[in-house]
């Protein structure tokens, strides 16, 4: 799992996380009409952007088709890089899939335009229990607009050997308070090619062998949690950006100082253009701490030989505030196959329908009763994922919302990347980024 699902436009190289699902081409779109039928069998199309999750859905739909022989479900994978440009074109042309994945940054526009089925109206309360944080995220105008599918929160991956050698307790890392323990820990964990740590007077910042932690322009895993932990807001209630507040300046100053002042995090010149670099460095043993979500689990587990574990995310002045996000499956309001589509949607909302997502280790399922499958999958591999459950149940930052937030994010991102580079003062750069974002949303 390679890409995050918080927002589409942050794929400008600023987020290297989770559900990507990049398939080799876009040529796998069904040539059949989404309402096609063969005899008495209706075909319902289901679109997503993640080729890691696709096999789990194929498995799920096999069970569905056995129970519903009159309905066939066809899975379409459209790569992340094409997904959000193809989606509006297919909706306007009437060729969109009957059911498709969306994230929180994109659903509101389509809900407001009447493109999505109203789940509250169509299914009511007749469904299995769903992850409440995802339900809240996709509730707009007192109605739910999607079926929760997967969700995540943030934790701290750590290299057990490096933190033991440095004598760092990863369960007690705090920043922005009088007893800041994060910076001293990262200085101990950062080592140059001569074996000198970042707290030594002769530390060579131009020749670093091992970094302490990731501190890049990663919305989901880094700056939304730090911003919320400082007591700041990404957006106000009306949807306008508010990250250039005094508390926002405090949070972003701390993050960027880790890069440009203390040199305990990789340079933004590299992470701005390669969002996966920090994870790759952690996998190679070149980074001691990696703050990320369950979307990084499979990539780390399948590719590293280091001795690693997961701890709660770092805490700030307002405590350990995580981001908690999720993806939903939405129904196409213009489907020509409404009855069959609703049956598939109901299946996708059931613990039985989501079980393969957990059993195959894809992500935490949105159906509460299916989540133990994911927990058990990783427990069998010796990995305790309870920190992510605890993070989602605790304080969480509000994810990006509103019909125009993608346009706003795309507008502010270039200047925000300059802030991480250190090429513009933090306060000035945040103000200019916020103004650009808000102007784009008017």
TrEMBL record:
Keyword Transport: yes
Keywords: Signal, Transport
Cell location: Cell envelope
Cross-referenced InterPro entries: Bact_solute-bd_prot1, SBP
Main location: other
Domain of life: Bacteria
CDD domains linked to this entry: PBP2_TMBP_like
Signal peptide (residue range): 1-21
PROSITE patterns linked: PROKAR_LIPOPROTEIN
Gene Ontology CC entries for this record: cell envelope
PANTHER family per UniProt: ARABINOSE-BINDING PROTEIN-RELATED, SN-GLYCEROL-3-PHOSPHATE-BINDING PERIPLASMIC PROTEIN UGPB
Family named by the database record: Belongs to the bacterial solute-binding protein 1 family.
Protein's recorded name: Sugar ABC transporter substrate-binding protein
Species in which this protein is naturally found: Trueperella pecoris
């Amino acid at each position: 799992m390679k890409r995050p699902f918080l927002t589409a436009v942050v794929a400008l190289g600023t987020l290297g996380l989770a559900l990507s699902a990049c398939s080799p081409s876009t040529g796998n779109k069904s040539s059949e009409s989404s309402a096609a039928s063969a005899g008495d069998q209706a075909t319902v199309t289901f679109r997503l952007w993640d080729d890691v999750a696709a096999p789990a859905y194929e498995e799920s739909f096999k069970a569905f088709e056995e129970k519903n022989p009159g309905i066939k479900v066809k899975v379409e994978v459209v790569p992340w890089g094409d997904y959000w440009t193809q989606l509006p074109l297919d909706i306007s042309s009437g060729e969109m899939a009957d059911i498709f994945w969306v994230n929180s940054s994109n659903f509101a526009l389509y809900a407001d335009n009447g493109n999505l089925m109203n789940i509250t109206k169509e299914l009511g309360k007749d469904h299995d229990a769903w992850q409440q944080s995802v339900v809240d995220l996709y509730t707009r105008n007192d109605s739910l607009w999607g079926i929760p599918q997967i969700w995540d929160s943030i934790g701290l991956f750590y290299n057990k050997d490096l933190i033991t050698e440095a004598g760092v307790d990863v369960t007690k890392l705090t920043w922005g308070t009088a007893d800041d323990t994060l910076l001293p820990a990262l200085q101990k964990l950062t080592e140059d090619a001569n074996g000198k740590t970042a707290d030594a007077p002769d530390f060579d910042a131009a020749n670093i062998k091992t970094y302490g932690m990731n501190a890049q322009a990663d919305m989901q895993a880094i700056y939304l949690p730090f911003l919320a932990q400082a007591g700041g807001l990404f957006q106000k209630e009306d949807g306008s950006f508010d990250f250039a507040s005094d508390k926002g300046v405090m949070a972003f100053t701390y993050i960027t100082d880790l890069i440009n002042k203390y040199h305990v995090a990789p340079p933004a010149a590299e992470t701005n253009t390669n969002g996966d670099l920090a994870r790759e460095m952690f996998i190679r043993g070149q980074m001691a701490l990696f703050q990320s979500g369950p979307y990084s689990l499979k990539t780390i587990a399948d590719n590293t030989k280091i001795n690693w574990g997961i701890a709660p995310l770092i805490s700030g002045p307002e405590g350990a505030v995580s981001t908690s996000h999720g993806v939903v499956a939405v129904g196409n309001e213009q489907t020509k196959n409404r009855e069959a589509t609703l049956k598939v949607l109901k299946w996708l909302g059931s613990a039985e329908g989501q079980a393969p997502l957990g059993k195959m280790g894809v992500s935490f399922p949105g159906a509460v009763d299916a989540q133990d499958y994911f927990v058990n999958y990783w427990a069998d591999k010796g990995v305790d994922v309870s920190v992510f459950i605890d993070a989602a149940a605790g304080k969480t930052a509000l994810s990006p919302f509103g019909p125009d937030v993608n346009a706003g994010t795309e507008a502010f991102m270039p200047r925000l990347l300059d802030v991480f580079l250190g090429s513009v003062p933090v306060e000035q750069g945040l103000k200019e980024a916020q103004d650009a974002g808000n102007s784009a949303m008017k």
